[in-house]
Description:
Elements: E1 7-12, E2 15-20, H1 21-24, E3 28-30, E4 34-37, E5 40-43, E6 49-53, E7 61-67, E8 70-76, E9 83-88, E10 90-96, E11 107-115, E12 118-124, E13 128-138, E14 145-147, E15 153-157, E16 162-166, E17 175-179, E18 183-187, E19 190-195, E20 199-203, E21 207-209, E22 213-219, E23 224-227, E24 229-232, E25 236-242, E26 247-250, E27 271-274, E28 278-283, E29 289-293, E30 297-308, E31 313-315, E32 320-322, E33 325-329, E34 333-344, E35 350-354, E36 358-369, E37 393-397, E38 401-412, E39 418-420, E40 424-435, E41 440-442, E42 446-457, E43 463-465, E44 469-479, E45 488-490, E46 498-500, E47 504-508, E48 516-517, E49 521-524, E50 551-555, E51 558-562, E52 572-575, E53 581-584, E54 587-589, E55 592-594, E56 599-601, E57 604-606, E58 609-611, E59 613-615
Parallel strand pairs: 2-8, 7-11, 10-12, 11-13, 12-14, 13-15, 13-16, 14-17, 15-18, 16-19, 17-20, 18-21, 19-22, 20-23, 21-24, 22-25, 23-26, 24-27, 25-28, 26-29, 27-30, 28-30, 29-33, 30-34, 33-35, 34-36, 35-37, 36-38, 37-39, 38-40, 39-41, 40-42, 41-43, 42-44, 43-45, 44-46, 44-47, 46-48
Antiparallel strand pairs: 1-2, 1-6, 3-4, 4-5, 7-8, 9-10, 31-32, 47-52, 49-52, 49-59, 50-51, 50-53, 51-56, 53-58, 54-57, 55-56
Amino acid sequence: MLVEAQTLNISSGSVIDQYPAESAGIMTYSDGTSLTILNKTYTLSDITKMYTDETTVTNNQVNIVYNGSEALVYVAGNVASYVNVTVNGAKVYINQTNTADVDGDEITYVLSGISTDGQFALDGSYKCTVSLNGVTLTNTSGAAISIGNKKRIQLSAKKGTVNTLADSANGSQKGCIYSKGQIQLQGNGTLNVAGNTAHAIKSGDYISIKNLTLNITKAVKDGISCNKYFLMTGGTVNISGVGDDGIQSDFETDDTTTGETTSHEDENSANLYLQDGILNVTVTANATKGIKAGGDLKISGGTITVKTTGGTLYDSSDADYKGCAGLKSDGNIVISDGTLTLTSSGTGGKCIKADGTLTISGGTINATSTGSNYGSSSGGWGGGSSSNSCSAKAIKVDGAMTVSGGIITAKASNHEAIETKSTLNVTDGVIYAYSKDDAINSASHMTISGGTIMAHSTGNDGLDANGNMYIKGGLVYAICSGTPEVALDANTEGGYKLYVQGGTIIALGGLEKGASLTQTCYSVGSSSSGGGGRPGGGGSSSGSWNKNTWYSMTVGSSTIAFKTPSSGGSGLVVSASSQPTMKSGVTVSNGTIFFDSQLYTGATISGGSSVTLSTYNNSSGGGGGWGW
């Protein structure tokens, strides 16, 4: 009974194979030179010692214990014949062979201890788990963890442990953690990673993250770089101190490219999926991206904070200047949920940049660009930029932009807050755009049929469509900078037109000349001729308003209240499904407040004095007569 309770240890230098006595079975000697236990045969001259103790052995497990300049490897007897181990100081190399005979289970490698010159390297062709159990490992000549195995590897930080990995500087490795295959980062512990030569974490396949706390404190290149796709379903990831992008996904060029697949099986899309968890990314180098997808970027949950501070660089392959971006996709961006806080302070920086389309159906997005424009950017009527310039914007979309939900706050200090190089279609949601240039600009048609929108420009138009603009529904509060700009601007010069067909509109600065007004618009105050303006500018309008004064506008049983950002004498136009009644100097309570406390919906009002409304005529003239 005592023998059965013991473990037989067979030591070959730094590697100790451990056989529970009850499972060791018959041990066979051959020719006095070899010993066979289970399926493993030892050369007797390689055995340094044999002994028994009461160690508990966990089947399918290999324990690697680092201690300064050395490491000891303890191998469970049932997998000893499948694990070939070489130890050089504190550098451990393992070649794992077939584990099909081990009840189909994977082998788990448990790393613990401390070494200032150690490594864990694994080759083979079978799935396994690498469990980090309070390990601190620095490799002075390569990657801290290097997986040549192209199969899926679970890299797990055990609950309650803190694990720290760093690689060597000026090496040839691709990352501090490197795997040719898939990496699943998980666990309820903490993992700190510093990449001193290239990336902090690099995979030749996909990377997924859940549960664990991952801190990337340094990377010469990307914080996380992978091929095929990236998926985050939980946990907390903090990335800073990187020389390139925070997270980057790209295509695996050796495999057939795909779109998104069911359960991501055999997927090679270069997509980047953020579904839950907390993600904080700061990048400081020029033209870098906080989160970059070579395919599509899809965000359906989580709390995401991205900060970029770098400037502009010339991209010789595209013959263009490029700035930083918080979120960047070479394909489409889809946001359906989550809380996003995006800031960009560098020259030419953007918070969101989609080379394809941008679709927003939910979530809360705060995007603030405070950087200056690079080069001779040509804004003005419709914005845009030349090949030797790079404009700083909150949201830039090369394709179409569609908004059907969510709350979007976009602010830009020096160019458009929101710009799409194609169409803009808004059916629902809340949008607040504040900028020095056009607050919201589309290079083609703009259609608003629902939602709540405030577009406030201090230097150009509020809403500007280079094609037709259709206002069909929703609540629109548009503010321009004054003559010659207008609150709602369609490209009359190009043969297009503003169509007011529905919705509730407050236009501080008037409407584009020659608009089609299916729904009647009204000037605030007695009618008089407006100021002159550029060809196609706003129409005749008048009235006066005072800064920091609450105005109410009641349509049927619904009341909204608003403030104007300045005092002025003309150009305030309103429209609704029926003729509204207006008051100035009201007291506002209750309701839902929007846009830096400048707009209430469903408000309860009291007091105030009536404001005269007259039918709006926009056949000639300009937008307004004030400045900022």
